[in-house]
Amino acid sequence: MNISIVYQSKDWLIINKPAGISVHNDPGADVCSFLQQQLSSKIHPVHRLDKDTSGLMICALRNEQVASLQRSLQTGEKTYHAIVRGQISATKGVWKTSISDRAEGRRNPRGKSQDRKEAETSYSVIKTNDYLSMIACTLHTGRQHQIRKHCVLGRHEIIGDMRYGERRYQEKLQARYKFDHMALHARELVLNIAGKEKRFHAPIPLEWKVFDLC
Q: Is residue 143 a contact partner of residue 124, using CB atoms and an 8 Å limit?
């Protein structure tokens, strides 16, 4: 499999990761393996996307570049698009529910009270129909599974999220739309590299057209 490369310099690159592929946990069949074969170069992920999340991801071609790129990522702006359950009444808003920095589950998405940290996600509604909404989410903190947790805590779970969502509902939607991934996509990334702002976009996955929201 060839991974779509959005931008490449001599030291790093931005890819458009497909949904359903692990970043590095499936040797021979993960993003790093495919890229190393594709580019004949060692790949160093600067950050991770969940297996079922698609979109923009940064990889370094030299290990010594990882730390500086991580700093740029921390001060940059990351915007995701998601398709979520139900109609969201407000056109925009902010979720500020504190959550843990660990992978949790549907029984307690926030995590244990002693593990919870401040978390902030702003969102805006792009389009809705009778049953679903497409939203844009911008991360202002970087907790694990932050958007997924904030969506379910806001009663608008992400379509395809089998970890945090209601299983019966998710299975019903999966059968109806023949959609077997999670509808969460890293859409836009703004970085400051060497004093210059760089802005990157990844198109919405074609599979999302089944929801009639894009």
A: no
